[in-house]
Design brief:
Pfam family, one: Sugar_tr
Membrane topology: Multi-pass membrane protein
GO molecular function, one term: symporter activity
Distance between the termini: 10 Å
Number of strands: 0
Protein name: MFS transporter
Oligomer: single chain
Structural class: mainly alpha
CATH superfamily: MFS general substrate transporter like domains
Helix content: over 70%
GO cellular component, one term: plasma membrane
């Protein structure tokens, strides 16, 4: 069956199965980014508890180094889970991934500090982050494959846009929880036990996601591949040999989101409080407002990608990110809370169109028999190189150059890579998912 026939079958209506598939796939992304934003918000707390050093900057660098190290295992997770997903189906790898994410997140919440067990504390924290990186590496490409293959063809942009929305929602909820705990608890209670509470939420969320994923059937697109015995025996080798151009375009498309999410939304509370001198509560509140604005924008731009296409949104947004970020960083240092919120919201507005369209564009250019693996490679390598290292690089740039706006140049370079990829990408709005 060709892609046009499948497109015609999927277009008519939204079913309960479509909705269950969407929720089941998105919940893993929610846990992943909820954990990462909590880690970012409480970086200064974790630095003191697990990495006591001679200076606050040194402690923060060690904390963000562990944040980056966890990303080193993401490509490995993508290869392992991608192989399983393209060989045997999407369901089982996604079920395993969500339980590993939930277990490692919960372990961080239960972990004793440096004062209790000494050097073992940062070692165990690092190991937990590595396991989390492996599972997340398999989660991201699998969830994108799952959603895009279940989505009605005429609403694929909107459906994959909800995956991006879930990431924004996780950042928003994580930020809200962190801000609430910071406001309600004394500094002593926050350092003693308060920071642990959000991490402990990972386990019940993981069980909910596992239940939903086990109840679903295999995606119709991959079921067709299995039916025709077109399963690739070595998906990674086949993908790198046959689809290397597509993989490179996908890596370029995800460069800007990798930098923007981690600089705009995860690093910014630490930046505003440590570098710009805002109180931690005000820094978190400003970031929270920008996240609310970002989340409100995503569904509209995702819907628009099903009308005008993926390519125009990504080109315009990449240009906007490159042009807006540096001036917006000046607003963050104006010493005025409203100006700070304005700066963060301007960056969110520039980023939202690309964020809403990129995952759908990437899924549509990958063939079904190799989609899980190719997406995992395309997603995990840029996120590892740009996203996982973003807080560390931003902290180092500010410390070494003395330029308080220097993190903006990092984002601008990533936007230039995404612009080049968007120009190389051929519009897929009317061609649909590649089946072969």
């Amino acid at each position: 069956m060709n892609s046009k026939a499948i497109t015609a079958q999927q277009a008519p209506r939204i079913t309960a199965q479509h909705k269950r598939a969407l929720v089941a796939a998105c919940i893993g992304n929610f846990i992943e980014y909820f954990d990462f934003v909590i880690y970012g918000y409480f970086a200064s707390v974790i630095a003191r508890l697990f990495f006591p050093a001679g200076s606050e900057a040194a402690s923060l660098l060690l904390t963000f180094a562990v944040f980056a190290i966890s990303y080193a295992s993401r490509p490995l997770g993508g290869i392992i889970f991608g192989h399983l997903g393209d060989r045997y189906g999407r369901k089982t790898p996604l079920a395993i991934a969500i339980m590993l994410i939930a277990a490692s997140t919960t372990l961080i919440g239960l972990m004793p500090t440096y004062q209790s067990i000494g050097i073992a504390a940062p070692v165990i924290l690092t190991l937990a982050r590595l396991v989390q990186g492996i599972s997340v590496g398999g989660e991201y490409g699998g969830a994108t494959s799952f959603i895009s293959e279940y989505a009605p063809a005429n609403r694929r942009g909107l459906y994959t846009g909800w995956q991006t929305f879930t990431i924004g929602l996780a950042l928003l909820v994580g930020g809200a929880v962190a801000s609430l705990l910071t406001a309600m608890l004394t500094p002593e209670d926050l350092h003693s036990w308060g920071w642990r509470l959000p991490f402990l939420a990972g386990l019940p969320l993981g069980f909910v996601g596992l239940y939903l994923r086990l109840k679903l059937e295999e995606t119709p697109h991959f079921a067709e591949v299995q039916k025709t015995a077109d399963v690739a025996p070595a998906p990674l080798l086949a993908g790198l040999r046959q689809e290397w151009r597509t993989v490179l375009i996908g890596m370029g498309l995800i460069a800007a989101p990798s930098a923007c999410i981690y600089i705009y939304f995860i690093y910014s509370p630490t930046y505003l409080s440590v570098v710009r001198g805002m109180t931690l509560a005000d820094a978190q509140r400003a970031n929270l407002y920008s996240l609310m604005f970002y989340c409100c924008l995503l569904p509209g731009f995702a819907w628009l990608s099903d009308v005008v296409g993926r390519r125009p949104l990504m080109i315009i947004s990449s240009l906007a990110i490159a042009l807006v970020t540096y001036p917006a960083f000046h607003l963050l240092g104006a010493g005025n809370f409203n100006h700070t919120v304005l700066g963060l919201c301007l960056m969110s507005l520039a980023f939202a169109p690309h964020s809403a369209a990129a995952l759908c564009a990437m899924a549509e250019i990958m063939p079904t028999r190799l989609r899980y693996t190719c997406l995992s490679v395309s997603l995990n390598i840029p996120v590892t190189l740009l996203g996982g290292t973003a807080p560390f690089i931003a902290t180092w740039l500010v410390s070494s150059t003395g330029d308080l706006q220097s993190p903006a140049w990092f984002v601008t370079a990533a936007a230039a890579a995404s612009l080049a990829a968007a120009l190389a990408y051929r519009e897929t709005l009317h061609s649909g998912l590649r089946q072969h």
